Amino acid sequence: MFPSRLEQNQLKASIAASYNKLYGQFSLNELQEVGNYRILKIVGEGSFGKVYLASHRLTHQKVVLKMGSKNDPNVVREVFYHRQFDYTYITRLYEVIVTENYVWMALEYCPGKELYEYLLTKKHIPLPECSQLFSQIVGAVYYAHSMKCVHRDLKLENILLDKKGQAKLTDFGFTRECATKGILETVCGTTVYMAPELIERKPYEGYKIDIWSLGIILYTMIHGTMPFDEEDELKTKYKIVNSFPVFDCNLINAEGEDLITKLLQKDPQQRPSLTQVLQHPFLQSYGSDILDKTEKIIKRQSHGSKNFHTKLERRLLKKLKQTGFDTQSIKHSVNKKKCDNLSGMWHLLLEKEKRCEVLRHPRRSRSVLSVKKVFDTTAPSRKSTDDNKSNYPLSKATSLKRIISMKSDSASIRQPTNLSQSKEAKKGPSQNAELSNGGGKSSKKPNFFNKMSNFFKNKKQTGSSAESRSTSPTSDPADKRNHNKISFESRKSSPQRSPPRPGNKTTKSVPHLGHNVTDAKEGGAKLKIEEPVLKKFKSNSSSEVSRQTSLGNYDSELDHRPLAVTGLPSFDESKNGVQKVRPISILSQQSEISNDTYNSEYSTDGNVSNSKANSSLSSNTNKTASNVVLSPNVDGYDNSSLQSRITAKRSMSIMSSASSASEKSSRTDSFYDISTASSPKTMDLRAMSTYSNSDTTLPRVSVGSHWLAKRGRSPVGRRGRLPQRNISRKLLNHSSSAAQSVIQEESSFDDDNAGDLAEPDIVPQLDSPDIMKELNDTPSKPQTPNLEAEHPLIDRRPILFEMGRSLSGGSSRWSHNFSEDQLPPPRGDDEHLELGIADDEDNSLED
Ligand SMILES: Nc1ncnc2c1ncn2[C@@H]1O[C@H](COP(=O)(O)OP(=O)(O)OP(=O)(O)O)[C@@H](O)[C@H]1O
Questions:
Q1: Which DSSP string do the residues of 362-390 spell out, in sequence order?
Q2: Which of 171, 544, 649, 654 to mutate to test the pocket of ligand 1 (most atoms within 8 A of CB)?
Q3: Is 605 a catalytic residue?
Q4: Does residue 149 contact residue 78 with C-beta atoms inside 8 Å?
Q5: 774 is in an annotated binding site
Q6: Which CATH number covers residue 278?
Q7: What does each C-alpha distance from 621 to 652, 691, 698, 778 come to in angstroms?
Q8: Does residue 171 line the site of ligand 1, with CB under 6 A?
Q9: pTM of the entire structure?
Q10: Tell me: the pLDDT tens digits for 544-568?
């Protein structure tokens, strides 16, 4: 029967609606999915593009999707190194998806965001928490160094906090290996975090510059301000080379001061090894614990122990096989660290399984851990010369608290104050981590020890319970772990503060610009304590301009004044009033960056790309400014002015190259040494033939204003693009110049020519009396690229980086696999289990 007219119309309408819906989906501008990941929301913005929170469609695990340009060599670098790391305190790279234009990295989601932001909210981090977080950070660097990799851009912004508040090192865009080249010369990192030898453009030992940066990080964590930070970039550099950090004895203890002083030794050789750092008394038991565990992990991984050997892994593999998965392919992907959709799925599934395992067997591992910690508490703890309260070992305290709570059957007698304290403790990331490790949740779920304590409790008279109940939580020594009690407030009134050191290196109270002055009584005397005041800062960074000065061809000078003149909109006053500038990571590619070199290697169609290099900034735009600021007579170089600088800032990661030669070599240098790199020769030839700097020869001022419009990014972003990132959040203040990460790639410094490079005329000292003259007189000295000389291996190296292709399920995009031949030996089992951390991981995300 023919449908009625009405029915026909209804059918038509229905078809039209479906059609429109589908069309709407096709024409949506918003990204909805990438590979197997469904985009949920934007969680950040990198120098190249947005960073998304996404959900893995098969496992529903949340990840972060970070996009990068296929043309950006640093993305290759980042992926190459990052995928090799398998360590608790390094964000895991699950999968790499290469689309037509972009490289997408599926990373472990860290809802705690950056340590930088955490510091902003806290103003400064209490010492015990610093010990714990810093131990984790050092552990991550120790692990990377053990794999012969240097990070070269260690800073607060590159340390994320996971849901447990654990530190996670990330952003390996500047990383390189040091196995083939012990001495480097690439100027690289963020200025305020840069070691003196980098500032002076001396050939440097990669590991040592990381150690310096750790010193800056620790200082900033404790003080909430940066040790060497001036409005003017050159002043900052001068200070890095010539000044010493000023310690605020209201915030730091003698041990912390000792550790920072060692880390910030001007002479790289005098800096301690990371083993020594982890064993330093300031890090209490955390450092040595992490050292032990990390060494075990490294040993196991270096022995190439196989994946899929744990019970959990075997069970998961079996399940997958039964479901019809090609488990051989999965094993292959995982063992070869392909970071393709198979290994990505495997790791996400495994994490989910671990979470389920913990739920099935609640707290078993935690109980075991707590036993260890209980026994640890019997060992004599390192005594701090400082306030005992503030240095009370967190883990021990937690364990003690657990024991006490077990004795008194905490489940039944838990007092509201205890609960509130535990809530308080959860606020801090370290506490979170501690609770997850130790006993924070132990009272909620029955475990062996709770059962035991219940048993003994039942044997007792009810009076004993009442007695326990009446125990004041504040009398519990474990309460000392409460960071809030060891906060700045308590420290202020501590009569046991380390006295000011003789000389002007240490001050009793550092007058901070823009800080609130509060009164506190110390030993009966009234002491003026100046707390940092949060205030919004002007994001006044400009891109770096290549400029050869007497400092060599160091090129990352910022001229902030034009920016200040242009008048950035100032941020609103923040809640807690601390003025902080968020250092922005920028990679400024200044000259002859042969991005196309890499594009071709990643090209999905296999064609050699002819994309142009996108950067090269003219270099002589701010000589006047430089001259002014480098004058030794400029105030700010003495200690009094040191005291007046207070603001910590979010640093701007900039990868800038000084000269054509340097840049060319840098782009290749980063890769020709590593096994997955494409043929350096090909790369360089193409770079030279296709180089165009038309895009990037913007004068600094115009660059700056461009950036200003965007608020927060250098126009030539780290990924070689115009800035896309708006910084609308509170920023660690930066007095004027947003500090910047710089990578000025080494012009292939070889050990052979180390002597040449170390010659004084090439590496002038910042405190040289002639520095002004040099700045005025020395024109830019473009270096002629001598690629063969710079890269002696250039002809001998085979094409090492091959791309495989596999269809990334769930989308029409293609996922590229890296050549297996270039992969590091398969690394072993799950160190999370060994660390006793991840086996109880709960992957439910905070948001
Ligand atoms: N794993 C992650 N979990 C949660 N948020 C993240 C993660 N990775 C990045 N983000 C967010 O995205 C922002 C930008 O990421 P990231 O700094 O890694 O980008 P980038 O391009 O490397 O930037 P830059 O070059 O300036 O360091 C971060 O500030 C952070 O807020």
A1: TTHHHHHHHHHHHHHHHSPPPPPSS-TTT
A2: 171
A3: no
A4: no
A5: no
A6: 1.10.510.10
A7: 20, 22, 10, 14
A8: yes
A9: 0.55
A10: 323 323 233 333 322 332 323 233 3
